[in-house]
């Protein structure tokens, strides 16, 4: 098998192994790691995957990209990460309505799709520390708009030689998400709210990562920084798996034949999940269009329609908070594939300086070949939840609703009848008050009563990890200014 090395989207810093890329998170020049070549998912390979369990499919697909990990190592890790105990409802089951094939990615411990990557990522990091001979403790910093934080905390809790600090925007996450994080167990975790929005949290974390002084203080104390955000390559590869697996499942159900193209629709924030689907496409998975679905923070919709990325606009808080993002970090990886490192560097410099950039016409053409941009207003989100429930008795969350609206709109506009694999990214119970208010005017003030009411109305059961939150006690209730984030990190590391 061909060895794959990792390079920066901005062109500096040489080549490293995937273990090094996972350990490091961000490249030294501020760019993101990308493979120096892409493996091929041939039809024969897909045929071989059909007969396998999800864990086996995951180990197989990941081994194509992580060539310095052995198949045996990956299989051992995947079997633990994707066990029936961790994913009680199955890893990535498909529910069908209209020409949508809704890929339920939220059956893991925190009820959102981030578990798909964050249950396996700590194991990849743990092996990376061994493989690279690292003896310091990894200090993981996470900026979250809600779901990543909890999923990372759950994935990394009590893992040896790793500590994790999570920052979230104090008014930018749902009440249930906040309770999930504030009650987190484990001896190596810290959770802090900041006064600001998600972009403030993400910029703050990026700033700490590139601050040489803080890094040197930490190093003297036996630590080094690592990231769990979706900019880490270790997050992306596990996400490629479920698109491949969904394709195999559609082959199994006889809905498509080997080689038939499908479309994919992803409710998008940081552009990680949809980029994983694009990677699968570039590696040969028969995908035609990728529908990028945004809420009213529709900076990506505008980019895909005009070629100009402009974050200078009002940030809006919506009922799909995990997509309330104006800087979609992983878009840089798409730019790199479409335009190369030199142009990507200049686009990113313009973004940092002016908050905007326009891509060259040839780059824009390439991107438009695969991507369609759509968005969904708050009213449309509610309306979609209501329609899908009334027509099919099927409950979707606020993020998934954004995807479903854009997928249906695409099909209606174009007459394209291909199946659309639509990522369902969270359990409806994780956003119970907003899902409920889309169905009925009677919404209890208390979030747990909203869960009960949603359960009664839909005659479905709330997932156990959410139902049991009620009894848990808050461990972390600090809120700091965004300028105080570095200090918070040092405090947690026991340095200040
Ligand atoms: C993180 C998240 C998204 C956005 O995924 P990206 O990879 O950031 O584009 C969508 N929905 C939910 C529920 C999420 O948690």
Provide structural commentary.
The protein is an alpha/beta fold and 496 residues long. Helix content is 46%, strand content 15%. The protein contains 22 helices and 15 strands. The protein has helices spanning 18-24, 43-50, 54-65, 71-81, 115-118, 121-131, 147-156, 175-182, 198-209, 212-220, 233-252, 272-282, 299-306, 331-339, 341-354, 361-370, 378-392, 398-414, 432-439, 447-458, 464-467, 485-492, and strands spanning 6-8, 33-35, 94-97, 100-104, 137-143, 162-169, 189-195, 223-227, 262-267, 287-294, 308-310, 356-358, 371-375, 420-424, 479-481. A six-stranded mixed beta sheet has the order 3-4-14-9-10-13, sandwiched between helices. Helix 7 (147-156) links the parallel strand 5 (137-143) and strand 6 (162-169). Helix 1 packs across helix 6 (121-131) and helix 3 crosses helix 11. The longest helix has 20 residues, at 233-252. The radius of gyration is 21 Å and the shape is globular. Residues 112-114, 147, 230, 267-273, 322-323, 399, 425-426 line the site of pyridoxal-5'-phosphate.
Characteristic key phrases:
496 residues; alpha/beta; 6-stranded mixed beta sheet; 5-stranded parallel beta sheet; 22 helices; 46% helix; globular; binds pyridoxal-5'-phosphate
């Amino acid at each position: 098998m061909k060895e794959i090395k990792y390079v920066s989207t901005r062109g500096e810093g040489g080549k490293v192994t995937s273990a090094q890329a996972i350990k490091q998170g961000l490249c030294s020049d501020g760019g993101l790691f990308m493979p120096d070549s892409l493996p091929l998912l041939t039809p024969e390979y897909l045929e071989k995957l059909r007969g396998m369990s999800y864990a086996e499919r995951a180990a197989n697909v990941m081994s194509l990209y992580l060539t310095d990990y052995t198949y045996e190592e990956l299989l051992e890790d995947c079997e633990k990460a994707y066990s029936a105990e961790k994913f009680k409802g199955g890893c990535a089951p498909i529910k069908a309505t209209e020409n949508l094939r809704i890929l339920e990615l939220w059956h893991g411990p925190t009820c959102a799709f981030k578990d798909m990557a964050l249950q396996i990522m700590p194991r990849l990091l743990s092996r990376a520390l061994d493989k690279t001979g690292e003896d310091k403790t990894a200090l993981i910093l996470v900026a979250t708009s809600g779901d990543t934080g909890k999923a990372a905390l759950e994935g990394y809790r009590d893992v040896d030689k790793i500590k994790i600090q999570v920052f979230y925007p104090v008014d930018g996450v749902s009440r249930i998400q906040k309770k999930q994080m504030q009650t987190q167990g484990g001896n190596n975790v810290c959770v802090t709210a900041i006064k600001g929005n998600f972009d403030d949290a993400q910029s703050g974390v990026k700033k700490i990562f590139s601050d040489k002084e803080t890094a040197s203080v930490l190093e003297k104390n036996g630590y080094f920084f690592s990231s769990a955000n979706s900019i880490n390559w270790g997050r992306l590869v596990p996400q490629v798996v479920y698109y491949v697996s969904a394709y195999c499942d559609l082959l199994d159900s006889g809905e498509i034949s080997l080689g038939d193209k499908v479309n994919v629709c992803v409710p998008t924030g940081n552009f990680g999940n949809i980029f994983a689907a694009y990677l699968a496409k570039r590696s040969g998975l028969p995908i035609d269009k990728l529908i990028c679905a945004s809420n009213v923070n529709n900076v990506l919709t505008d980019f895909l329609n005009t070629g100009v990325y402009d974050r200078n606009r009002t940030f809006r808080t919506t009922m799909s908070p995990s997509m309330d993002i104006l800087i979609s970090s992983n878009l840089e990886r798409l730019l790199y594939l479409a335009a190369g490192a030199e142009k990507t560097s200049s686009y990113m410099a313009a973004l940092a300086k002016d908050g905007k950039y326009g891509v060259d016409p040839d780059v824009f053409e390439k991107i438009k070949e695969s991507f369609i941009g759509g968005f969904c207003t708050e009213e449309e989100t509610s309306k979609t939840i209501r329609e899908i429930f009334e027509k099919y008795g099927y409950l979707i969350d606020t993020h998934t609703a954004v995807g479903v609206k854009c997928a249906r709109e695409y099909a209606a506009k174009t007459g394209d009848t291909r199946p659309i694999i639509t990522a369902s990214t969270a359990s409806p119970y994780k956003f119970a008050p907003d899902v409920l208010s889309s169905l009925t005017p009677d919404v209890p003030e208390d979030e747990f009563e909203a869960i009960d009411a949603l359960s009664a109305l839909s005659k479905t059961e709330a997932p156990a990890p959410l139902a049991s939150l009620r009894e848990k006690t808050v461990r972390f209730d600090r809120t700091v200014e965004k300028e105080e984030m570095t200090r918070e990190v040092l405090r947690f590391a026991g340095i200040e």
